């Protein structure tokens, strides 16, 4: 298991390249939820998402250790931007495999950071084959979106900051994050374990990509029975690495429908006046769906990102 020292070292390493994002509250949303919610606004992060943390931590170490002369990964968007951004910081070329149906705004952003985008069919097999082809052609080093300790350590720094900035005097009773491949949730769970051990970690997952909840129950990596969700950033299954951390340190995983996700997303846009993407709204949707479960509690929520295609808003 990753040590606290590894997470702290990651934080020190990436500090010059990231924002220490604000923690915001909203009275109207608190009243609606019946709880005290503290939102860690990673939608204000570099590249518009928390993924800048893990991608930067991994790429910096690849460069420092001279592991290769190029970087590659596969991603539907935010991790792709993170790796492209980090590779530009260290002067390495980046080759990013992205599904052809990834949001255009995310593909454009990756190219804007100077990376080469290789489009593929929207399946995990196609993404992984694309990366293998790039490695064979260029010798690039893979920075996996979540199945990588260096990425997980970087993602853990978001919860570390949340706890340091808003959970010291009165600890959080619950800390929440969405779950896709589990990199953020693993990092959140570890940071909470070390810094706020009395807090429960609860994950939110779309009902239309509900693999993590099944894996959490069975103890082995499961596939979602079907994929149909607006939360395009949460379509990936867990890895053995992330599942082991999640089962050790996460209390529960709760699912929400797309309608509930969109309602939570709209509420944040309307009441907080900030842009978040559908995947980002999943934990708030969980709180709103289960008011009795969270009533009266102090809850920290990581708002994961704000990279939306403004031409395709769901409201």
UniProtKB/TrEMBL annotation:
CDD domains: Thr-dehyd
GO term, biological process aspect, one: D-serine biosynthetic process
Source organism superkingdom: Bacteria
InterPro entries recorded: TrpB-like_PALP (IPR001926), TrpB-like_PALP_sf (IPR036052)
DNA repair as UniProt keyword: no
Gene Ontology molecular functions: ATP binding; D-serine ammonia-lyase activity; L-serine ammonia-lyase activity; magnesium ion binding; pyridoxal phosphate binding; serine racemase activity; threonine racemase activity
Ranges for domain Tryptophan synthase beta chain-like PALP: 14-305
Keywords per UniProt: Lyase, Pyridoxal phosphate
The protein's required cofactors: pyridoxal 5'-phosphate
Lyase in keyword set: yes
Family membership noted in the UniProt record: Belongs to the serine/threonine dehydratase family.
Protein name, UniProt field: Pyridoxal-phosphate dependent enzyme
């Amino acid at each position: 298991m990753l040590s606290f020292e590894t997470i702290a070292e990651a934080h020190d390493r990436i500090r010059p390249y990231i924002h220490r994002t604000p923690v915001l509250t909203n009275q109207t949303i608190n009243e609606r939820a019946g709880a005290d919610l503290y939102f860690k606004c990673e939608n204000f992060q570099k590249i518009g998402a928390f993924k800048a943390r893990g991608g930067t931590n991994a790429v910096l170490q690849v460069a420092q250790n001279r592991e290769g002369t190029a970087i590659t990964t596969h991603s539907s968007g935010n991790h792709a931007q993170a790796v492209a951004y980090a590779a530009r910081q260290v002067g390495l070329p980046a080759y990013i495999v992205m599904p052809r149906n990834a949001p255009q705004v995310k593909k454009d952003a990756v190219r804007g950071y100077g990376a080469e985008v290789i489009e593929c069919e929207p399946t995990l097999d196609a993404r992984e084959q694309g990366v293998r082809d790039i490695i064979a052609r260029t010798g690039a080093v893979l920075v996996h979106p979540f199945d990588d300790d260096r990425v997980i350590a970087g993602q853990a720094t978001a919860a570390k900051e949340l706890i340091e900035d808003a959970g010291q005097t009165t600890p959080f009773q619950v800390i929440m994050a969405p779950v896709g491949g589990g990199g953020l949730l693993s990092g959140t769970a570890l940071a909470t374990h070390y810094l706020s051990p009395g807090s429960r970690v609860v994950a939110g997952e779309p009902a239309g990509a509900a693999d993590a909840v099944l894996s959490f129950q069975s103890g082995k990596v499961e596939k979602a029975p079907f994929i149909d969700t607006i939360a395009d950033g949460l379509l990936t299954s867990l890895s053995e690495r992330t599942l082991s951390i999640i089962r050790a340190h996460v209390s529960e995983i709760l699912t929400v429908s797309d309608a509930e996700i969109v309602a939570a997303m709209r509420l944040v846009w309307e009441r907080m006046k900030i842009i978040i993407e559908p995947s980002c709204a999943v934990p708030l949707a969980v709180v709103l769906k289960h008011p009795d479960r969270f009533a009266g509690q102090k809850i920290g929520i990581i708002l994961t990102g704000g990279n939306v295609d403004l031409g395709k808003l769901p409201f």
